[in-house]
Predict the structure.
Amino acid sequence: MTRSALKVVRGAALLLGAVLTFVLAPGASARVLDKDLEGMVAPTVSGDEQPGTIRGGHYSPQAVPEINGPGRVSTVGNVWLKTTNIGVMGNPFPANSSDPSGQWPGPSGNEFLFYWGLWVGAKNPEAQDPAAVRRVSHNTEWRPPSLAPEDRIYQSYDGQVGGQRDIDDDGDHQVDEEFYNGKDDDNDGAIDEDYAAISQQMYTCELRDDTDQAVNANFAEKHVPFGLLVRQSTLAFAVPGSNDFTAVNYDIFNQSGHELDSVFVGFVVDQDVGPTSLDRYFSDDLAEPRVPQGDFFEALSSVDANYDPVLCPSDTIHVRGFSMTDDDGDLGRTTAASSFLLLGHTIDPTGVKGPRRVGFRMYRAYLPGTPFVQGGGPTVDLERFQTLAFGLNGAVAPVGIDPVTGLISEERPDESTKTDYFSICSVGPYLHWQNGEKISVQVALAVQRCDYTRPVSDAATGAPSQERYGAMFANAIEAQKTFRGKYITPPFDQDDTNVPDARGRETGLKAIPGDRYEKADCRDEEGSGPREVNDDGYTWFDFDCDYCTGVEGKLLKNWLAAAPPPNPDIRLTPGDRRVTLEWDNLSEITPDPSSGLVDFKSYRIWKASNFTRPVGSSGPSEELWALLAEFKLYDYLSPLADSVDSNGDGVRDTLVLTAPVLLNTQTNQRLFPVDIAPCKAGSTLEAGECPPATTAPGDTAYFHGLRPYQIHPGVPAVDSTYKTAIYPIGRYRYDDPNVQNGFVYFYSVTGKDSTGQRDVQGGRGTLAEQEGRRSAVESNGVTPQSSTALAASDSAIYVVPNPYRGGAQWDLTPNAADPTGTHIDFFHMPAGQWTLRIFTISGDLVQTIRYDDLQTNGKPQKENAADGQATWNLISRNGQDVVSGIYIFSVESEAGTSRGKFVIIR
């Protein structure tokens, strides 16, 4: 079955929503689709309208801003995961979008996820109806807080203006007090002026379970909301070691106005594994409950803040996850497997209100179509709550989890039961969840190689075979290390009590105003007894009895990994047999999130051509990308020998800034910056601090965050006031003349280095280089167009190809948005506004195309003033493929009327 086909029925499993009619791909077999997802078709829009905008003075009753395509897909790493703002991750709506769900590597057409949905269950002590006490808000019962334009998905990157982590971006003596959501969260009159942008690509949005759209949706069971707010952040990393997973952080806030009890956070996870070009690729999957999981030990470096030669010479990495594999690797076409990782969640080391340690409460893999009473999936809220709490109908203890180790104990199913499995897992319970309190959960979709030719288990131990699953375990360990981060001295810390006061004390407690009480941890119980907790500051405790989970004077900073610079923002302008690329200087000004250093090295320009849109692909694959040029930055700082004696004592102590020079590494051609005004909108620079467009030796430039940093690691006495200016798109420009009109091309500009890793040799050093990911989705494609200048000199409008015989070189594989996958083009179209009409030889109107109509790629026919080309996808105004024959066209414009004819041969 192709990627455009749907899961249509899951029998009794997860029967939740209203039934709408979907169109299956021709000849496709039926695929299971959760019933609660069937009602979620976004409204059709036209012109400049966006999903969720007001139409006719009101909103469409099921207006969901962002499930249509092209949507928000994480593309900087190898796992391309789609984010939505309706409680599901992935793309279970292929009729609305050809976006990948969870593909690896990149836009390969190999899927490893259909979707996962967020479930939150709780007991509501305020409920008057006994049937409403235990409820679960699940899947698409989460909606944007409103239908206002600001309630959408936002994209950012680590180092973005206003989004620097641990930095007071707005100068109000608070740090990261906002969430990137288009709203004034701290009521200071500014919007998104100081939030934390994490990872090289981050998508953020808010969800609620009590909107009119959630409550009034036509579900099989009436939705009873709690009054919860979810802040969802999707995080993707480009650096090797962290680029084979994409993570999601859920911050869940109780805004019900009262206490909720016995709270569980869970996920229904449908991991479909295989190439989407295969029919029913999802029907031969096998659950792997114990892969990857376990506790793994790693020696610590002596420079690690957590290192202690006696107490903490090594580190323990706790991995909690489960996987889905193919039964045989689809005869070599499926080379990897999908893992769902539980990276972290809110814990209570005392065990009073929540779990003491990170781990699943329950886990089960489900066969589709099995009734709940026979161990199948739940269909109503009472069954869902029971599943999250225990895992199985009639169970009195959590199912699938070893009570001692907390690891998943469920066995791998027999290979004879291969099918379209789905899984449900949960964490909790959280007791007496007060109004205003938050529960956080961090999960990830990780994909890595699985050697299907090797044995499933180790012959000696019976454990999962490292020969088969070793790469998956290693990937999960790296994901866990990236999430956990490392211990740092907080640059924003102004209160000594905000950091641990002794080794091993990881938990800080502070009493409510006017209160005080005594508390003891395992170390106190061995010695001095309980200590006082008051409202003056934090008192730190070692509740987990581990000397290695707290470092004196430092805090654990999550999501920390060295990274290449973010790719610059680019603009592509198609011309006549030419494409112009323009970009900003983002890569040059963004410090590494791990080291805080700016160490930019070069820009690399990539181009992809010969794209045919293979089934399931959302953009050019890795093998289509070719390097056009690399522009390397040559010595933006002078050597130490050329430094300046600043105080006249005979010692050269200050480096002199030299103007940056970007040279083509092959031709030595210089890339000249365009002389445009620096400083982007939203810059935090003060008036008068923005430097000129060019910087002469000895001048001082300024960085957008006003945070001093060392520019040249390994070279002493660098002036810490060195900073760089911000320039918009257009700072750099590159023309590619090696293109043909009518063909689609993709471009990507990557930044290189910025890891901050350097082996210092002789006072300078060699960079450990890393590069941003080259990537593009189909909507990023650009098509060179015949120029209107040609129309002025030669008024004859003509058609290419003529005759059209099918199978043109530029033909693409059809998909839902482009049902023919092909087009014919009209060259020498006139300047200004025009209307193109196409007729049969007998004079019947076939199609009308205007200059501002949208093409199948979502772009207007006239993409710019010089665009002299129009395209037609061979679909009639009645929505049908046109047949073979002779056709006549007429183009009306201010210049007059032009006519011609062309032939189609099917």
Notes: The helical segments are 35-38, 212-215, 381-389, 466-484, 522-526, 586-589, 788-793. The chain has seven helices and 43 strands. The chain has four domains: 118-162+197-266+283-484, 488-557, 567-784, 788-904.
